[in-house]
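Hi R.,

Here's the chain you asked about this morning:
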Amino acid sequence: MLTMDQIHNIRSRFFEKGENISQIATELNLDWKTVQKYVDRTDFNLPASRTLSKPKFCP
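And here is the predicted structure, written out as tokens:
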């Protein structure tokens, strides 16, 4: 997982500077799919963890 600074850097290069995904990936030594994921993402909050339920039958 990338830090928020790295994500901000990727998004600013793409949206503000107009660099393409391949160029960003090459310069930051990342896979282009990773760069694409963070360009497309709008919600950066971690998903809420689920609480495990207790089994219905106790031995």
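One quick note: The chain has a mean pLDDT of 90.

Cheers,
M.
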